[in-house]
Amino acid sequence: VSRALDEALRARLGARFAHGEASPSGERELTEVLALLRTAGGVVGRDVRISRGQLTGIDRVEPSSATVPVEAGARLRDVEARAREVGLSLGPLPPSAWTLDVASFLEGPFAGLRAIPGGRLEPIAIALTAILPDGRLYRSLPSPRSAAGPDLDAWFLGGGAAAGLLTGAVLRLVPPLAPAAPHAYAFADAAAWVDALAEVLAHGVFLSCVRSRALGARRTVTWELASPPETAPIDEATLHACCRRRGETAPLTVGGEVLPASAPEAEVDWATLRDGAGTDVDLHRLSLQSVWAKGPGIVPSRRPGAAAWMTLHPAADPGGLLGGGA
Amino acid sequence: VETFPANALPEPRPVVRALEQALAHTCSGRVSFQAQDRLSTGRDMWPKVLLWLREGRIPPPPDAVVWPSSEEEVAAVIRLARTHRLAVVPFGAGSGVCGGALALHGGIAMDLKRLERVSPVDATSRTVDAEVGVLGETLERGLARQGWTLGHFPSSIYMSTLGGWLATRSAGQLSSKYGKIEDMAVSVRAVAGTGEPLVTPERPFHGPDLVPLLLGSEGTLCGFTGARLRVHRAPEHRAFHGYRFKRVREGVAAIRSLFHAGLRPAVVRLYDPFDTALVGRAKPHDPPEPPSLRSRWKADVLPGFLRELSAQTLSRPGVLNRATALLRQCLLVTVFEGESRRTQSEDARARALCADAGGVDLGEEPGRHWFAERYAVSYKMSKVFDSGAFADTMEVAATWDRVMDVYEKVRAAAAPLAFVLCHFSHAYLEGCSLYFSFAGSGPDEAAQQARYDALWRAALDAARAAGATVTHHHGVGVLKGEALREELGEGASLLTALKGALDPDGIMNPGKLIWARA
């Protein structure tokens, strides 16, 4: 199978097939690659790796809707640069996300989620395009919300390309953020700052990062707002009120040490956060459901996926072409 | 959809009758083959059903009705139905407006209102566990007693259930702040068409989030049994406001500017000129008048006169729609709620932004009035039906760059067939919902139904052509099945895959979503 497949892929892609990796240049070519795999009885991952590294297009930013169509291989940092040109942004993402391409951010552990005010998470993609295992094209409609049946984009977010291969997305942007103005507060114990954080999020304050460090027996916590200029003063006032109920203002210079790059990071739930709140930690993608945490004491709290998913993903790929998201 | 004479309800099929004992066993004896139970669970508030009823016909009823009171009983009903290849139609309170509850293939209507337990609020996680049969108003009152709110206030709150909200991806009037029901559901419990229970995990977890794949399935994949929902502290304060704009476009731009500035009003509603004229005309309820010639005229004679007048007027909608060009005012209502200082600050900022966009500040009263009357509109449509005409609403959604195009194209497409009003609400950073109200008439019932069907075809085609999704929060049911299939295109195969995995025998609410008959 492999030899015949290799020859077919080389004939079709030329130099864009090398060392077992196919790099199709567009949706049509990706569809053809999958067709060749199907014909040869091949499996993605096992017989050939598929790169979307050629799909790096970034379309025009639509400023009124704050959206931008991108291809799956575009780097998030390049998308951000394009958005900044028109005064918009992808918003505050965890630092490690900025090295990823769109497909990896959407299909991988980040599941394409970002935090929004109100302590909620929402998909950063308002619409997706993908090639399904049978060669069909999946294209969802860009809409702020919908009730048009189940949200089928969910097949792909965090799905590890088990249901199809993303080729593009329309990403949501956010208004320009005010210059970061960190605020620091000292808390007597770990529980106090975690409670303050939950209250701040519940009040709708939009945070890009929260850093907790030891300050003697206490914790000093630095808060970075992600507010547009219009609402930054409102968010600052709310943050101050919530923190002063449980702690006191601290100098910004205390506890600003940078965590080692090798420190583990993971999405954790609030129970795990409370357990580890006594250690140094940086928090991103802050929501009332979970936070993205980085620190020496971080232990991933991922639960097994729903048993139903094990039933569902073969339904989307009955021939096993995508190898379960290999 | 096959309809039947209202006075000749078809008998339950023998194959279902034969299961009476087995059905009774699954639901502790709560099974009925009575006509009134089958009639009341075999329909919803789809206006087309109201047209049929006026004509003396009814939609196909279920053969039997059951009232499970636990997830185990729900699973037992579905397993029994699967064994005998019978349709199961989950039923909440019947407030749907797209025919999603019609028992197109007979079978078993599964009324879930006995699943109504609600846990106390967990203040640490800010969540509440609720079963799906609880009515919206009951749920919200229970939360309010504890100092919390779900923030979900659909117009149907007195007559809709949590299960219905989950099944249709419902939105409440405060969705701009609290989101739609999919933003509130932390996890859900359901029983699939296989009879297997499903519990979606809470974040974090491996793999995709199953909640979005189940919500909006309208009973075609599973029957929901419960959900864990995000709740919020009850608001300390509400700030109301109204603004007048000369043109729809200016009002739309004002809404967009609020969201691009990072403000999060709980409510923004912009009424187009004729909707503004109707909303502006509405007044708080008049006190009852003592008996007199004048009060008798108002109570007995005037309604009949207006009925005749409106039926005649609505049969020539083109004239009426052209007349709206003479109107030049759009009302924007905003409501902010939450912590006092924050609410006041955001309201103040909104006033400045609306002024920049050309809005005239009308003070608090329009907002307060809207809030006081916010559920009343749901009950006004019956007057149109009483007059012999018909009314319906279509809520679509689009990104901001397409909103005005959707507005103009749908108006143009629908104007020859019905009188058209629209308001813009449920706004987000990327766009908003457009809520069209239609009123039409015809010389007889058959003509009215033909016009009703033509109106929906024209309006949905226009909305789709302009780039809107075919529904923001009413769902699909029978009404929008064809439009959904067109919207999904080849991607419909993923919905078919879901159906194959969760309901391989096709027993769950057959004939809805993309499986609706053309």
What is the gist of this entry?
Chain A is of the alpha+beta class. Chain A has helices at residues 2-13, 27-40, 76-85, 102-107, 190-202, 232-244, 270-275, 307-316; strands spanning 17-18, 21-22, 49-50, 67-71, 113-116, 120-123, 125-131, 137-139, 165-172, 183-187, 207-215, 218-225, 247-249, 265-268, 281-284, 291-294. In chain A, strand 11 and strand 12 (218-225) form a beta hairpin.
Strand content of chain A: 15-25%
Number of helices of chain B: 21
What about the largest sheet of chain A?
7 strands, antiparallel
Q: Globular, elongated, flat, extended or rod-shaped: what is the shape of chain B? A: globular
Which oligomeric state applies?
A: heterodimer
Number of strands of chain B: 19
Order of helices and strands of chain A: HEEHEEHHEEEEEEHEEHEEHEEH
Mean pLDDT of chain B: 92
Q: Give the low-pLDDT segments of chain B.
A: none
Return Rg of chain A in Å: 22 Å
Largest sheet of chain B, described in full? 7 strands, antiparallel
The pair of chains with the biggest contact is: A-B, 83 and 95 residues
- Which class of secondary structure composition applies to the elements of chain A? alpha+beta
Determine the mean pLDDT of chain A: 91
% residues in beta strands of chain B: 15-25%
**Unreliable segments of chain A (pLDDT under 50, ≥5 consecutive)?**
none
Distance between the termini of chain B: 10 Å
The secondary structure category of chain B is: alpha+beta
Number of strands of chain A: 16
